[in-house]
Specification:
Shape of chain A: globular
CATH class of the largest domain in chain B: Alpha Beta
Largest interface: A-B, 33 and 31 residues
Oligomer: heterodimer
Order of helices and strands of chain B: EHHHEHEHEHEHEEEHEEHEEHHEHH
Number of strands of chain A: 3
Radius of gyration of chain A: 14 Å
CATH superfamily of the largest domain in chain B: Type I PLP-dependent aspartate aminotransferase-like (Major domain)
CATH architecture of the largest domain in chain B: 3-Layer(aba) Sandwich
Helix content of chain B: 25-40%
CATH topology of the largest domain in chain B: Aspartate Aminotransferase, domain 2
Structural class of chain B: alpha/beta
Strand content of chain A: 15-25%
Number of domains of chain B: 2
Distance between the termini of chain A: 50 Å
CATH architecture of chain A: Alpha-Beta Complex
Largest sheet of chain B: 7 strands, mixed
Strand order of the largest sheet of chain B: 2-8-7-6-5-3-4
């Protein structure tokens, strides 16, 4: 299978790899996928007010899954929570030129963003 | 050293230059039809075919008359299983095989199931091996055929062919073995090993693609198969079609070389394989060998690198041509059916890489491959949330995973 230049770029130099303190109240963590499916994404956001000031990821998965999550962290940094959850998988598919068999990778990245935002919101709900 | 490095010898092999030279005149100068009985062109072609038949028969301990030329193992498998099924359906309609077989066997069996046959798919052990006891337990009065591979194409595991063959003969059941991966790498003797039908393919043993044979036993018992391709009655009526003389000559030469070089090739590849495994396991933790450590081919190394997905690893070692049991390398999204049959767990199946070494692999190439693999696995584990969790002491099997496909 041939990979697009953008997938290769994110695979070779993934952006925002790492972890944030998941216990911190201003950090939201999303973990989606399952090892037996061959894809697990962990995406974390650090939020100030309603704006994402930092994002980190770690991904177990194919090159397209790594690229999708790397791209997702790049896109959501600086966005508000509402803007972040408005990102759809089709935008990721377009940006990375993913073939049909890799669309699930982009879906997972979208889910990871939503899951991280939900985690942050539920923490805020408990805190207040 | 030339890049990329080929380490996929279970998929196919390059033609040995000695084989290519033997074939060369049969494309242009000696081009006759081996079935032409009336002139020198035909006689020369026939002579070349019969020489090759003898070379092939010698390698597997058969008589030349027991060799039927086909286009390769897939066709031979179809002919063996469907041909036996059609010929012996009055005796019964039951076949025994294993979940770890090649798709050519599994899909042929599925085809027969649609026609009313009953097929038992035995589950191999964690090393992909089927035992004699399993066969004994599955045999029935209406069993016609046992179809079991000699060596597994993904993990290299060897089945106890001689013992299973003896059991089949004792019970009057025909025994077919797909020896595509075994021939040329380990000694094969259809007599001593009690095999009734056996297939092999040219391109797995440094011969050309598009040529193979089916061995069909003529004595004790005399085995008959119904032809699946009808026509001029070539190959004693079992497989019609003009013989492909240059490829047959190439297969013959490949078999002769395989016979003389077998011990040398096996020593060469097993030493390199062990070196590769040692280099990798010295540097990396959480590496699992897939297959049976004791009963395996000399040139196959199938490893799972926990917490790293196979396709992403292949991307990281793009200078090395290997294959992965990961779903993402195929269109199906299902991980390798062989690793699934072995019940190694889908997570490890997604993390597997098959290294296939061969006659032309060098130590320099193996060292280069080891360096690349070690580097890529370390890098990808830095990226892996699973590795992070494992290092934190979280048992991944207890995690309630959300979503995924």
């Amino acid at each position: 299978m041939a990979y697009s230049k953008k997938v290769l770029d994110h695979y070779n130099e993934p952006r925002n790899v790492g972890s944030l303190d998941k216990a911190s109240p201003d950090v939201g963590t999303g973990i989606v996928g399952a090892p037996e499916c061959g894809d697990v994404m962990k995406l974390q956001i650090q939020v100030e007010g309603d704006r994402i000031v930092d994002a980190k990821f770690k991904t177990f998965g194919c090159g397209s899954a790594i690229a999708s999550s790397s791209l997702a962290t790049e896109w959501i940094k600086g966005k508000t929570l509402d803007e972040a959850i408005a990102i759809s998988n089709t935008q990721i598919v377009e940006e990375l030129s993913l073939p049909p068999v890799k669309i699930h990778c982009s879906v997972l990245a979208e889910d990871a963003i939503k899951s991280a935002v939900n985690d942050f919101k539920s923490k805020q709900g408990k805190g207040s | 050293m030339k890049l990329p490095i080929y380490m996929d010898y279970q998929a196919t092999t390059p033609c040995d230059p000695r084989v290519f030279e033997a074939m060369r005149p049969y494309f242009t100068e000696t081009f006759g039809n081996a079935a032409s009985r009336n002139h020198r062109f035909g006689w020369e072609a026939e002579e070349a075919v019969e020489k090759a038949r003898g070379q092939i028969a010698k390698l597997i301990g058969a008589s030349p008359k027991e060799i039927v030329f086909t286009s390769g193992s897939t066709e031979s498998i179809n002919l063996a299983i469907k041909g036996v099924a059609e010929m012996y359906s009055k005796k019964g309609k039951h076949i025994i095989t294993s979940e770890a077989e090649h798709k050519a066997v599994l899909d042929t069996c599925k085809h027969l199931e649609k026609l009313g046959w009953d097929v038992t798919y035995l589950v191999p052990d964690h090393g992909a091996r089927i035992s004699v006891e399993q066969i004994a337990g599955a045999l029935r009065d209406d069993t016609v055929l046992v179809a079991l591979m000699w060596a597994n194409n993904e993990v290299g595991t060897l089945n106890p062919i001689r013992e299973i063959g003896a059991l089949c003969h004792e019970r009057g059941v025909l025994f077919f073995t797909d020896a595509t991966q075994a021939v040329g790498k380990i000694p094969v003797d259809v007599g001593a090993d009690n095999v009734d039908l056996l297939c092999l393919s040219g391109h797995k043993i440094y011969g050309p693609k598009g040529i193979g044979i089916l061995y069909v036993r003529r004595r004790n018992p005399r085995v008959r198969v119904v032809a699946q391709i009808d026509g001029g009655g070539h190959e004693r009526g079992m497989r019609s079609g003009t013989l492909n003389v240059p490829l047959i000559v190439g297969l013959g030469a490949a078999c002769e070389i395989a016979g003389t070089d077998m011990a040398k090739d096996a020593k060469h590849t097993s030493e390199l394989r062990d070196h590769l495994e040692r280099r990798i396991t010295e540097e990396l933790d959480f590496v699992h060998l897939n297959g049976d450590r004791e009963h395996r081919l000399p040139n196959n190394l199938n490893l799972s690198f926990s917490y790293v997905e196979g396709e992403s690893l292949l991307m990281g070692i793009s200078d090395i041509a290997v294959s992965s049991g990961s779903a993402c390398t195929s269109a199906s999204l299902e991980p390798s059916h062989v690793l699934r049959a072995m019940r190694v767990g889908d997570e490890l199946a997604h993390s597997s890489i098959r290294f296939g070494l061969g006659r032309f692999t060098t130590k320099e190439e193996v060292d280069y491959a080891a360096d690349q693999v070690i580097h890529a696995v370390k890098r990808l584990r830095e990226l892996s949330p699973l590795y992070e969790m494992a290092k934190e002491g979280i048992d991944l099997s207890t995690v309630n995973w959300q979503g995924g496909h």
